[in-house]
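Lecture 7 notes. Example A: sequence first, then its structure tokens.
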Amino acid sequence: TATLALGAAILARLDVRQIARPLMQELADATGALVSLGTRDRLSIIYVESCRGGSIVTLRLDVGSRIPIATTAIGRAYLAAAPASERNEVLERLRELDDASWQKVEAGVDAALDEYARTGCCSSMGEWNSQVNSIAAPFDPGGGLPRMAINVAGLAQAYPRDKVLDEFGPMLLELVGKVESRLGRRQPRP
């Protein structure tokens, strides 16, 4: 019930959803993939908007879906744009919860931070789910709203690594730039 209350309160204030949704649907239609908008809720990312392309085989994640922050592209993008103090706090809590897999998680986040510095995006190629490849980019919607990220995700067999990085990455950055521009928040990319 706490998540539903949080979700309802945030969704009511999210004009960014109305701005992003048509652009997200265009990208979903162009790629056939799932395009989602999410923000942090504790140690997860929660989807606040989601659009599907026309592909027969697609991921079934909708508004309200909760996914891990450290192994998904959207979570890593969120962390990459977060202040170091927030990122370190989240990572420390994750380490405390699962020390056994911590080295692998930490290596994935470190690689994502480097990737974000080079490209403006973060990816996850089968690291959250072995059958899912995705790429994401963060942005700050302003207006007192929390930092967010948008991802493009699909089944790895239909969306190989090169396609996700080389084709979907530039399309995603263009989408995020349009959303930021329409929100009056155009930010320089790394």
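Example B, a different protein, same format:
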Amino acid sequence: GLIRAENLDHAIHIANATPYGLTSGIHTLDKREQKKWQHLIIAGNCYINRTITGAIVRRQPFGGCKNSSYGHGSKAGGPNYLTQFMHAKQIDIPKEKFPAGDFVNNLTRFLEKFDLSAEDLGFWYASVSSYAFFWQQFKRDKDRSKIVGEDNLFRYIPHKKLVLRLTPEDAPIDYLRAFAAALTTETRLEISWEKGEDEKVRHANWEAMLPIFNIIEENEASFAERVKGGKIRRIRMLHKPSEALKKAAAEGAAYIDHAPVLANGRIELLHYLREMSLSISYHRYGNLGLREGELRKPIL
């Protein structure tokens, strides 16, 4: 089937308007069009100037997004696939550190409003510096194959819509670190929360702390109704959900990503990012052009 588009922007809009996002491709020698397309297209495996089938383990880790993915979403053949089969536990604080960004530093100013112990504060600073360190690693495209004539880039992209559901049993140090992880990766959260007995938490100025997040106060029944109606597709929780919420998620085809908050950014940041494989054929009929002198893997 063919669909006529007025221009590249219209074509990208048509592709992104579909409910699925497994693979997508474009053929163009215009570098401006290549750059625009790869930053706007919403798909898991993306290809430029080559076929859009035949993904190879490690070279092009495979998996989609939107309705072409359900669950955690780490790609088969990628660096995070096995993390889906483990239950990570915090044993010690991470050693990797990097200065936190402005949004996280702004959040740090509100810590005094919560009753945090010295140990909590230690976990806070270890966590946010680890998140900053690993975000510096994650936001750089990686090409581990380096084959001649083709770039195969692995990229992390913040989720477009992610709901963080907070309950009265969640500890402030945990959801504050979840906020910091989302702020580090520039993931726009919707926060659904329910008031508990802690006066400091109940009267916290959430809008001042988190000006870029959408914050909704609601009980579990109201939240479950939204989930059941298909309004929410991806939920991050810090504790195991109730049976009623799991049933609502099953009926609304929503994925509940529940796991304790970790100080190690290598694992924690994955909750807020999706993976993209980008394969770009840069040769023309075997001619490598200006890139002929690059150090690549030998041709066998």
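Note on Example B: The chain has a mean pLDDT of 92. The two ends are 38 Å apart (CA to CA).
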